[in-house]
Amino acid sequence: MKYMLLIYASASEAPQYTPEERRAAVQTWLAFRTEAEAAGVLVSNGALQPVTAATTVRVRNGKTLITDGPFAETHEQLGGYFLFDCQDLDEAISWAAKIPGATYGSVEVRPVITYMQE
Amino acid sequence: MTMTTAAQIEATFREEHGRILAALISRLGDFTLAEDALQDALVNALERWQIDGVPRNPGAWLMTVAKRRAIDRLRRAVTLERKAAILDSLATQDEAEMDDSIPDERLKLMFTCCHPALALEAQVALTLHTLGGLSTQEVARAFLVPVPTMAQRLARARSKIRDAGIPYRVPPADLLPERLEALLAVIYLIFNEGYVATSGAATGGDTLTRHELCQEAIRLGRVLVALLPQSAEARGLLALMLLHDSRRETRLNAAGELVLLAEQDRSRWDQAKIHEGIAVLDEAIALYDPGPYQVQAAISALHAEAPAAAATDWRQIAALYGTLATMTPSVVVEVNRAVAAAMAWGAPAGLQMLLRLDTQAAGFYPYHAARADLLRRTNQREAAADAYERALALCGNSAERAYLQRRLDEMLNLAS
Questions:
Q1: ipTM, 2 decimals?
Q2: CATH for B313-416?
Q3: pTM here?
Q4: Which of B115, B117, B165 sits opposite A1 (nearest CB)?
Q5: pLDDT band at B415 (very low <50, low <70, confident <90, very high)
Q6: Does residue A86 sit at the B interface (CB-CB below 8 Å)?
Q7: CATH number at residue A56
């Protein structure tokens, strides 16, 4: 089963790093990714630019509406994701708990819908 | 239909429900399909058994019929590959194998129902519904929520089990301790819901009264002990529930008001439950794996063993609360510890311990109730009256409110 692990954190929760700490933090993220890859569960992953770089698109009455940023002021921002292929929810939870961001933000575990052939 | 047959059918349903459902889920790999098929079989049984009587092996009968109904349901809905796969595997199984022993898979079902990814209220409802065999109406009545609300809660929980991929298994060793803790907590919550209940009293023959939740929790506790014989805490919880339940009849007076432990008629305590509770606790202790349920059961046992309130071994109880405080630190434990200390070494000693809790306990009515009682016993009537008032303002239980009000009136009369 595929699970999307969405990593959220608010600006106030995100740690303020010194340059050395930042290098160390990057290493822990890379180590996590390597571990997941070696375990054969990683499908894909990505880190996202902050919402200040976001653009929202809507199509209404055939017209494309483009706005800067997300509409609502969201407290917790989506900062990145891991798409995993796991045996069950327990396995997905165990991976979610190892994501470095889980120690200060939160990880939402969302099962991906599988459409079966008729 | 004679009453005995009706009662027999009802008892059989309750007894067999969890075991059959657990085995069916294993076989079908589909929680909802298993529940629906079993429901069909129960309806069928109700019709047939009224005429033919309860079969020799009712469990096997229900299992066989449920499996057939599952096949019927699948045939009607074979549009998805997965369902076709289940159907194939079922069709190749020999019907005869169902007729004898049904494998006991209830432990898997318990852990699935009590998975922490489900909301606690859903865990409780699902456990009672699937393992206890209580109908949606009965569970709704027991928790004083409208039937549609409960039906929705159960449906949502079932969908989450399927959609989120909650595994149907006994958790592996690394997860087992925390998952078992959650399971024990659900059973104890069911017990307490029935134990503290003073509302929603019996409404008639086959409906569940809230007190029956205590019996249901004890039954689940027994099943768990049988399935996990090496768990000291499972035994500790069963012992605790039995010992608490031994005092159920004396806990409230005829007017439905709370009767304090010291004022209860000990001759009416259920000695059979006390003996069993103590025996189960002894078995738990022999496993050398202490935990909070065993400590609480030990405290309850000391009360049960005291021939009179005055003969209670309060020093031992205070010491056990001290142990409990290190295992599960909480305001509740600290308040009880202080009350025990007051009994062991005098009201001032207990009062001193209580006053240290002040800020963290301010919103907790038993703290104010205990403080009020100790102030009363040290003749500080105005302060006691004030504390009773604060307790009353926070307490929602009508029986306990009646007790607090009675004490408050006493203080006000004496003070004036």
A1: 0.85
A2: 1.25.40.10
A3: 0.84
A4: B165
A5: low
A6: yes
A7: 3.30.70.1060
